[in-house]
Amino acid sequence: MDSGSHQRATIVDVAREAGVSTATVSRVLNSSASVSPQTRAVVLEAIERHGLTARRRRLRDHPLPGLVAVRCPYLLDDYFGAILSAIARTLRERGKVLMLSVEALEGDEPSLAGLLRTELTEGALLILPPEPGPVLAGLRAAGYPFVVVDQRTALPPDIAAVSAAHLAGARLATEHLLRLGHTQIAAIAGPRNWIAAEDRLLGYRTALAASGRLAPEGLIREGGEPTVAHGLAAARALLDLPEPPTAIVAFNDKVAIGAMEAAAERGLRIPGDLSVVGFDDLELSRVVIPRLTTVRQPLEEMARMGAELLLRLIGGREIDTLHVELATELVIRDSTARPSPRGSTT
Predict the structure, then answer these.
(1) Is 330 helix (H, G, I), strand (E, B) or coil?
(2) Domain residue ranges of the chain, discontinuous segments joined by +
(3) Which of 223, 247, 284, 314 has the most crowded Cβ, counting Cβ within 10 A?
(4) How far is CA 308 from CA 84, 89, 94, 148, 317, in A?
């Protein structure tokens, strides 16, 4: 094979010749221990024939064509799975190969570049990255192309990001409850260090203020991970108040389902005695009984747009809008209704 072919070879070519998946080739290149010695030998031989061994010594300046890192610092669930699946489809359609970095950790990572293998990859998509702005700014200053999908913290203005309209979505949810006649509306917010939690709580406050009401601090629960357990604990405290809420706006669908469980413990009917609104529109919101009224995030569209923005950056093209915010939509189902005469307040 001539040198020109060496330069054009990609891990797709290696995978085809070795009779393995591109993910296996990626694991061999990353020195992963999960590949059998026999398979590793076959892949390394194919790599050598395609001239990629010498190229690996120059990858810091010439990343392996077609390999894109995707970083998700949390355990994959239906939320992250929806985003990841859409990213994978978009990259595959464009002839790119995904290298996934999944970390079930919180807080700053010691070496983001190490997790992304910046010497191997053309660029990266960072899903809800926990790193603070200065760390991401450093990665950007190094010239490494990346796009943030669903930012967790405030970002510098020169970092490309795609997110949902959290404030507008929470405002829609709260306005829906106000139109139904609820005045005792509680909010179970998310983690304090998440920008989505701040924006959704602000949307709740904004809707109440527009109706001439102040958000009652006693009906707001902040902090805690966005889980069913957090929703259960927070709703228990709210429902045990002398004047409990007749409606709850939850940070996400999981928190909302925890609130529904707390209501069931107390023999309260949903939506007869308590209305509940979630956020995300995950599959579980459509199978829980009663079906959950929620705010739909365009997760797949966020993922696809993030991937397209990254491909533009990798191709050296300019991006007109670095921060893209996609619209959310209120989906009304069975978990909200007018407050019962017993529970309504003025």
Answers:
(1) strand
(2) 1-57, 166-297
(3) 247
(4) 14, 11, 9, 12, 11
Domain 1-57: homologous superfamily in CATH: lambda repressor-like DNA-binding domains (1.10.260.40)
One fold for both 1-57 and 166-297? no
Instruction: Give one DSSP letter per residue of 72-136, joined into a string.
Output: E-S---HHHHHHHHHHHHHHHHTT-EEEEEE----S--S-HHHHHTTTT-SEEEEES--S-HHHH
CATH code reported for the domain at 166-297: 3.40.50.2300
Backbone angles phi, psi at 123, to 5 degrees: 180, -175
On whether the pTM is more than 0.85, the answer is: no
Closest CA to 28 of 101, 118, 99, 104: 99
Measured CA to CA, the distance from residue 75 to residue 51 in angstroms comes to: 36
Rounded Cα distance, 97 and 10, in Å = 10
Q: Are 201 and 189 in contact (CB under 8 A)?
A: yes
Please report, in tens digits, the pLDDT of each residue of the chain (346 residues total).
444 444 445 667 777 888 887 667 766 765 555 678 788 888 888 877 776 554 444 444 455 568 899 988 776 677 888 898 899 999 989 889 888 877 645 544 446 777 788 878 889 999 988 888 888 888 888 889 999 999 988 898 889 999 999 999 999 999 999 999 999 999 999 998 899 999 999 999 999 999 998 888 899 999 888 999 999 999 999 999 999 999 999 999 999 999 999 999 999 999 999 999 999 999 989 999 999 999 999 999 999 999 999 999 988 887 877 889 999 999 999 999 999 875 444 3
